[in-house]
Amino acid sequence: MSYQVLLTIFSSCFGFVSALWFGIGALLMGPSKIIKTSDDSWDANPGMAEALISQSAEYLAGGALLALSFVFQILSTQASIDVIRCGGPFLGSPWVIALVGIFFGFVISYPIFLLRRSNLRRRVSAQKPGTSLV
Q1: Is there a contact between 96 and 84 (Cβ–Cβ < 8 Å)?
Q2: CA nearest 38: which of 49, 30, 54, 52?
């Protein structure tokens, strides 16, 4: 194993743990914490609950995608160095591959965001009567 591969694996693992911390923080932001933090008894922050719900959903989606990216980075250290031949110069272009990667990143992470946000909205509304979160 080369030093380059060793350092790449270590950096990927540290990044993976970082992504887990993002995800754990988002998962621990439950309805009771949101309600407690967004106490609107003095009308100080009427939109705080919605902001916390969105933030939790965004962090969870981003953390999941970040963790997946580090798994790919670790796998890349063991991948073959053979050249991939696919559909000519256009489809094999790094720009096209990057755009496809960005597209699939959103395809993977957006449903996580939507599910977490709708789940938290439902649970917060159930625990805090009279709250209508849209």
Answers
A1: no
A2: 49
pLDDT tens-digit profile of 72-127? 888 888 877 776 666 666 666 778 878 888 888 889 889 999 999 999 889 888 88
Q: What are the C-alpha distances in Å from 108 to residues 18, 69, 72, 103?
A: 19, 12, 14, 9
Q: Model's pTM, two decimal places?
A: 0.70
DSSP sequence for 70-124? HHHHHHHTTS--PPP--SHHHHT-HHHHHHHHHHHHHHHHHHHHHHHHHHHHHHH
Compute the Cα dihedral for 21, 52, 108, 62 and give only its sign. negative
> What is the spatial distance between Cα 26 and Cα 61, in angstroms, rounded to a whole number?
9
CA 10/CA 28 separation, integer angstroms: 27
